[in-house]
Amino acid sequence: MDTRISGKTRLLGVFGTPITHSGSPVMYNFSFDYYGIDGVYLAFDCRESEMKDSLAAMRRLNMWGANVTMPCKQEAARNMDRLSPAAKFIGAVNTIVNDGGILTGHNTDGMGVVLDLKDHGKSVQDQKIVLLGAGGAATAIMVQCALDGAKSVTVFNRGASALEKAEKIGKKMKKEGVSCMLDYCLLSEEELLTETIRQGDILINATSVGMAPMSEGQSLITDMKAFHEELVVYDVIYNPEVTKLMKDAAENGCRKENIIGGKGMLLWQGACAFRLYTGLEMPVRELKEFLAKREKEGTPVLQDIVHEQKEYHEE
Ligand code: NAD
User: What residues does the Quinate/shikimate 5-dehydrogenase/glutamyl-tRNA reductase domain cover (predicted)?
Assistant: First the structure.
């Protein structure tokens, strides 16, 4: 790395807080090394109130681009010169590309799930999707699935206010010609939930339920009749690697190859951002091998991200 830095090296980074355990610098710098790209990626601690200054710094330092994580994603979206369709609907940005001082905000979170499903041979096109949750990750997934041609997305959430926000976004998408059918239901409507999953093609958990250590061993699906052989089950949680939802799905008729955990989402949303920065494909296979090696050596990269999220959620 030190011999690679020159007078022409471009800077990229991630803004958010807490940030010191972020796995992003390892992922991006690995990919820059792989291609011999003259860029370097660092993590910058940034509170929401500091986001505008950080964007000014991006322009001033001619940074190539940046990722944005909690709690700065919405503030970033409010201060972009341009927004991608997904970022505009979601109202949150996790990737910024700097084109000569013009900052364009993208949101690759939902794309992370769509590309990971694709990596597992599954497409969201024409599929009936049941989505658990209406928070940040869920909203991004809802929008991306709708933009990518899902037949329907039925959102189930614990509280009504987040559902109303999701519905507002859905209405905006409809107005702009997105044809996906969107429905919004409360998780307390248990029979409807079971029936919708039984008739659905893909079930996605985008809540924090099931995540270690706070709610490991929990699942929002308590009626095992919901699972069926053709159902794809996707859990955004990556710690533990196999959640209760995934175990229940496997034990109740879903095919093993159709049950997917959230590690790939992390990787693919990064791969999508990498493509936006460089126009190149992130070397995902090599990166996966490298991450597995780090895990074996006892210095896991993704584990660090989990620690960071734990701190955030415990605040
Ligand atoms: P958020 O706080 O915006 O949303 C949390 C969601 O979980 C809300 O819909 C909330 O209603 C729901 N929820 C929480 N506890 C619940 C309970 N007991 N019963 C029912 N619903 C409950 O958070 P977020 O940013 O959307 O993240 C959600 C999860 O997704 C987190 O666990 C996060 O780690 C994970 N995530 C994974 C990736 C990845 O790359 N794999 C990326 C982003 C987020």
Answer: 122-210
Beta bridge partners of 202: 129, 232
pLDDT of residue 301: 80
**Which two tokens mark 288?**
């996966």
Distance 208 CA to ligand 1 centre (A): 4
- pLDDT confidence band for 2 (50 / 70 / 90): low
- Residue 54 Cα to ligand 1 midpoint, Å, equals 26
pLDDT at position 242 is 96
- The pLDDT of 17-22, averaged and rounded, is 92
Tell me if residue 196 falls in helix, strand or coil: helix
**Does residue 25 have a cis bond before it (omega within 30 degrees)?**
no
Cα-to-centroid distance, 286 and ligand 1 (Å): 29
- Burial label for 24, CB within 10 Å (0-12, 13-18, 19+), is buried
Alpha carbon of 132 to those of 2, 16, 24, 265, 299: distances in Å?
Answer: 45, 26, 26, 16, 32
Amino acid at 234: Y
Q: Which of 169, 207, 220 maximizes ligand 1 atoms within 8 Å of its Cβ, making it the mutation to test the pocket?
A: 207
Residue 94 in marked binding region: yes
| Edge-to-edge strands, sheet with 10-16 | 39-45, 10-16, 65-68, 95-99, 102-106, 82-83
Both tokens assigned to 106: 């993208």
Place of tokens 């003259």: 38
Does the Cβ of 141 fall within 6 Å of ligand 1?
no
Query: Annotation-wise, does 24 bind a ligand?
Result: yes
Burial 204-238, CB ≥16 within 10 A → b, else e: bbbbbbbbeeebeeebbbeeeebbeeebbbbbbbb
Helix (H/G/I), strand (E/B), else coil: 158: coil
